[in-house]
Amino acid sequence: MKTTRFDIEKFNGITNFNLWQVLIMTILVQIGLKKVVTEKKPENLDQLEWEELDEKILSTIQLCLANRVL
Predict the structure, then answer these.
(1) Can you say whether the dihedral through the CA atoms of 35, 52, 42, 62 is positive or negative?
(2) pLDDT tens-digit profile of 15-47?
(3) Contact at 8 Å (CB) between 62 and 33?
(4) CB count, 10 Å around CB of 28?
(5) Distance from C-alpha of 54 to C-alpha of 49, rounded to nearest angstrom
(6) Phi and psi dihedrals of 11, rounded to 5?
(7) Measured between alpha carbons, how far is 35 from 56 in angstroms, rounded to an integer?
């Protein structure tokens, strides 16, 4: 399995939030999770699976926040 690393500046409250937001959405697209923040839960997806995807997104976003913002 190939791993791709994305290196963006952590949002610290001072950097440009709009740019940071675009970069986060781009990362979510690349890792296949954007649908979780932009769509409702698909009928055919188990609630537990949906919650796991939601946790993955949350952790991805949290890892891109500076400690003082988190």
Answers:
(1) negative
(2) 999 999 999 999 999 988 888 888 888 888 888
(3) no
(4) 19
(5) 9
(6) -75, 125
(7) 12
